[in-house]
Amino acid sequence: MPLRQETPAAALARENTRQHQEGEDRRKSRRAGMGRSPCCEKAHTNKGAWTKEEDQRLIAYIKAHGEGCWRSLPKAAGLLRCGKSCRLRWMNYLRPDLKRGNFTDDDDELIIKLHALLGNKWSLIAGQLPGRTDNEIKNYWNTHIKRKLLSRGIDPQTHRPLSGGASAAAAAASGLTTSNTAGFPSPPAPVPRPARPAIAIPPNVMFAAPSEDGQSSSGGSSDAPRCPDLNLDLDLSVGPPCSPPKTPAAAASTPTSQQQQQQQQRPTTICLCYHLGVRNGEACSCKTTSPAGFRFLRPLEEGQYI
DNA sequence: AAGGGGACCAACCGCTTCAAA
DNA sequence: GTTTGAAGCGGTTGGTCCCCT
Asked: Region (Disordered) spans which residues (predicted)?
């Protein structure tokens, strides 16, 4: 699967070369076509590619003071960058625990399964792949895995078979998706904003393929594109189970106050996220912690799927 | 050898979420 | 309960590299 292997040394060399070639002029003009004014109030913040010196300053500062308070970091570190830019650079490129290099086939499959479960929640997916960043996985998805799935006849958004053969593949490739017909819950569509997933997956979670009729089919036939092999035992819930997800059509409509009331009246269940080490709000919206140490899961919102 | 086009990926923007005031 | 600002996230852009013709 590797298309372009790049060693760290090569990457550095490439980076240095690139930095050399990039002058102030290009830096200034680079974003000329893009939207609103920068997030930072400073007119004199640098943009574009980071220089080696900037990288070193950022690394040195974070080594000395740790991460945090990105807003004030640039000034403290002597960088003419906005905090967001510093954070991004650190998270996506400079962090020492980053793993560079190609994704393995196992990584591919894991990403595909996680995407089937979580949708475009790249940060959550990245959380299951140590050393990988959300940006990296997002790029990798868009450049490799999408194509891989399309070649298998699978819609990368819905993870379901494309109907209509080549024409459907072409449609998917052009950003169109075919309708779902198999009744398997699809991951949240990207637009509008994907639904917040309610469950976070630890790295050791095993996936078992549910078949169309709800039976496990982990050893089943294999040519057909497989739905995500999710074997999440959710029997931990206390009290009656949550209401089943509504249809996508229902999900599309904005909740009325009556719906919101009903939502509030739904029973609570134990939030797995708490035990999985997911930060508050990262995989669910629950906030409270019971005296017994459990956080309670806010039931799925309209249109949310697990 | 040169040019074109696709692939790759760093970095940006805009939006949402969250917590403090 | 409301406001505000920082942090974080996802979508998108555009420069560079590489392969093919």
From this structure: 1-46, 155-265
Q: Are A294 and A271 in contact (CB under 8 A)?
A: yes
Which protein residue's Cα is closest to nucleotide B9 at C1'?
Answer: A139
CA of A189 to C1' of C1 (A): 33
At residue A106, the 3 state secondary structure works out as: helix
Long-range contact set of residues A149-158: C-beta below 8 Å, sequence gap at least 24: A149/A112, A152/A225, A153/A225, A154/A225, A156/A115, A157/A186, A157/A187, A157/A189, A157/A190, A158/A186, A158/A187
Which tens digit of pLDDT belongs to each residue from A45-91? Answer: 788 888 888 888 888 888 888 887 888 888 888 888 888 888 888 98
Nucleotide nearest to A136 (CA to C1'): B9
The separation, in Å, between residue A75 CA and nucleotide B20 C1' comes to: 23
On whether the CB atoms of residues A139 and A125 are closer than 8 A, the answer is no
- Calculate the angstrom distance between C1' of C18 and CA of A81: 32
Question: For residues A288 and A53, what is the distance between their CA atoms, to the nearest angstrom?
Answer: 44
Q: Which has the closest alpha carbon to A229: A282, A198, A184? A: A184
Covered bases, chain B (protein CB within 7 Å) = 7-19
For residues A255 and A263, is the Cβ–Cβ distance under 8 A? Answer: yes
The sign of the dihedral angle between the CA atoms of A129, A107, A216, A196 is: positive
Q: How many residues does chain A have?
A: 306
